Amino acid sequence: MIEIKNISKSFNGKKILSGVNSVFDTGHINLVIGGSGSGKTVLMKCMVGLLEIDSGEILYDEKNFSGLDRKERTPFRKDIGMVFQGGALFDSQNVERNVMFPLNMFTNMSMQEKKDRVNFCLKRVNLVNANLLTPSELSGGMKKRVAIARAIAPNPKYLFCDEPNSGLDPKTSIVIDNLIKELTEEFNITTIVNTHDMNSVLEIGDKIVFLFKGEKWWEGNVDDILRTDNKELNDFIFASRLAKNIKMV
User: Fold this and answer.
1) Among residues 81, 99, 106, which one has the least CA distance to residue 192?
2) What is the pLDDT averaged over residues 6-22?
3) End-to-end CA distance of the chain, in Å?
4) What pLDDT does 197 receive?
5) How many other C-beta atoms lie within 10 A of the C-beta of residue 63?
6) pLDDT at residue 246, rounded to an integer
7) Domain positions in the chain
8) What's the Cα-to-Cα distance from 27 to each of 24, 101, 153, 158, 183, rounded to whole Å?
9) By three-state DSSP, how is residue 61 classified?
10) Is domain 2-79+158-248 classified as CATH 1.10.3120.10?
């Protein structure tokens, strides 16, 4: 479980997040949605420690992550997997080395143990025998699956995905959504996904947090979102579906 309490963040005097609160449960897909500039990527970067919050608290299983210094956060970082928008693979390294990266950083495994773990993760994302391929040889969907394999390699308790379907066609997006859901349930991970894809929201969202102008504007589940009378949320849903339809034409 991850809990955020009254998270606020500003840049050069401009408020990006203002008093955001929520609880993200283990074994569930927790979605954070909102338009461009709503603050969802900044919130995620704050939650994993890439940005420091101005005020508030970030609790990992009731332990205050935000109150720790960089060195004290190391044990938490071993338990955090991150799928960046675009995948963020190392172009100069093959698939095996990309997936092995967090194992080299956070574990004392032998080389054989690391290779076995890499092969397990690649098999789990349906990329058997892709070890020696380079990122330039991969499709967009394959890159995302390698990024997911890398994120789960150290067997994390917490998984963060920033726009995992960005740039993917609808069919591949469904594959990635289903994979994230399966891994979350199989390994009982606390998963947080930033997305603007309403198909993802309706298909895999267990809990949904809607940010608007840096504030938590709405929170609920899929059934709630289909019945909401929240104007800003309905405007976002309509715009998201319209944009999706335009891309498919």
Assistant:
1) 81
2) 95
3) 40
4) 85
5) 11
6) 41
7) 2-79+158-248, 93-155
8) 9, 25, 18, 10, 9
9) coil
10) no
